[in-house]
Amino acid sequence: MEPLSNRKKVLEQKPMNFWERLYLPAIFQGMGITFMHMFKKKETIFYPEVEREFSENWRGLHSLKRDENGAERCTACGLCALSCPAEAITMIAGERQKGEEHLYREEKYAAVYEINMLRCIFCGLCEEACPKEAIYLDGPIVPADYLRKDFIYGKDKLVEDPIGS
Amino acid sequence: MEIAFVIEKFILITVIFSVSLGVAAYSTLAERKIAGYLQDRVGPSRAGWGGMFQPLADGLKMFFKEEIIPAESSKTLFILGPSLALLTACIGSAVIPWGQEILIADRLVSLQVTDVNVGILYIFGVVSLGVYGIMIGGWASNNKFSLMGAVRAASQSISYEIPMGLSIIALLLSTNTLSMKEIAEQQHGANWNILYQPLGFLIFLVCSFAETNRTPFDLPECETELVGGYHTEYSGFKMGAFMFAEYLNMFLASAVMSTLYFGGYNYPGMDWVNDMTGPTIGPLIGMGVLFLKIFVFIFFFMWVRWTVPRFRYDQLMNLGWKILIPLAIANIVITGIVITIVDKL
């Protein structure tokens, strides 16, 4: 049969000579290699204290963005929840009252916005679906916790801090 | 029997017992640290400075784990297994000479619990008893994997005791004594037995790896084939006892190898040091040297474990019966011929 690639390599199985059959030289060689590894630079990253540098398109914890005036961008259109393949996002829309213009950009806003971090697969489809550029997965790693209910993140954890705070 | 003698021995036994338990406990940490360093990691480093309290944490964990005794097992034997393994691992160190006689309050105290005149045979017997713990434990578990592990342990230790014994015979030819104390005394200074018995030492080393069930001969507990081997069904403290027995055996094997082949507490220039420091500090330095040798051997055990992969079962048997035993016999013959020629000259 014709080889499919030019990487085919025929290895000849020669019978071992006396030195190789002794077996001990090979062991000493291997032990030398492992001993040298003791003095190499260690790859360990001490995680909570030191964080590995993330790539630019890393998708971490979600954040709900504010506009240049500090008002929440989200209008509770529900496209993110619709696009979410893991069905992790739920929201309840609210109507903006008079005097809340500095808080919410449009007349409709998300009164409750919850993401279940145990369901979320960090695919970034919510980010792509959002027409208002209101949600981005630009946060850190979601921390570990003890109870399932603590993994449902509400607006208190998701909305980014107001400008200047 | 005078009361001072009893107190002296009691203190010595207590110290040796606690030291060997301490060494075994910290061997678990050293194992993980060395494994880490050989694999470009750092090993456990959270509990205390550099992971110093990791053995304590591991021990606590072992104590608080649920102890499961399988319903179909024979309960007495199931508990007897790890107890026996731990017991035999502990009593071996009784005949090791830890140092020269030391002068404490105008009394010459021997740093050896008991000088049995057949010390080597005693150690040999204790080491062979060690396999009973594994066998009983594996049999009592009523589990195929455990039984396989136990059978492997039995056949392995029987196979490797033969070359081990033969290599010791060659050593006895050159030392003319079975007493550990006399063997240690004969190697005064740098006159170590390794110079006369290099091949015998190599055989003894390989066999002690097999006797302590360490990689590359850890077939009784090989995880990839037998789940956990003889301790598949064990949990909690009984599992810990088996693990602890393995590390104690490693400590004992290191001590025996240091004493038989590497001079024990002897080191070059020891007379000069003894003159300088006196009869109390001098033997203590010798003891430190012995422990240094033991630690080097323990490091070697671990270094090999994280370098050499496990033998296949037939390879293990081939190595034992077809290579080590003929080599050991050849070693005896060569030693005998050389001794005869040297005596005639």
Helical segment count of chain A: 5
Mean pLDDT of chain B: 85
C-alpha termini separation of chain B = 48 Å
Oligomer: heterodimer
Describe the structure.
The complex is a heterodimer of chains A (165) and B (345). Chain A is built from five helices and five strands. By secondary structure, chain A is of the alpha+beta class. Chain A has a domain at 63-158: Alpha-Beta Plaits. The longest helix of chain A is centred in the first third of the chain and has 14 residues, at 24-37. The model of chain A has no long low-confidence stretch (mean pLDDT 86). Chain B is mainly alpha-helical and 345 residues long. Chain B has one domain (66-344). Helices cover 69% and strands 2% of the residues of chain B. Chain B contains eleven helices and two strands. Chain B has helices at residues 3-38, 54-64, 75-91, 119-140, 144-175, 180-186, 198-211, 223-226, 236-261, 270-305, 313-344, and strands spanning 102-104, 107-109.
Structural topology:
The complex is a heterodimer of chains A (about 160) and B (about 350).
Chain A: H1 18-21, H2 24-37, E1 63-64, H3 79-83, E2 89-95, E3 108-116, H4 125-129, E4 135-136, E5 152-153, H5 155-158
Antiparallel strand pairs in A: 1-4, 2-3, 3-5
Chain B: H1 3-38, H2 54-64, H3 75-91, E1 102-104, E2 107-109, H4 119-140, H5 144-175, H6 180-186, H7 198-211, H8 223-226, H9 236-261, H10 270-305, H11 313-344
Helix pairs in contact in B: 1-9, 1-10, 2-9, 3-4, 3-9, 4-5, 5-7, 5-11, 7-9, 7-11, 9-10
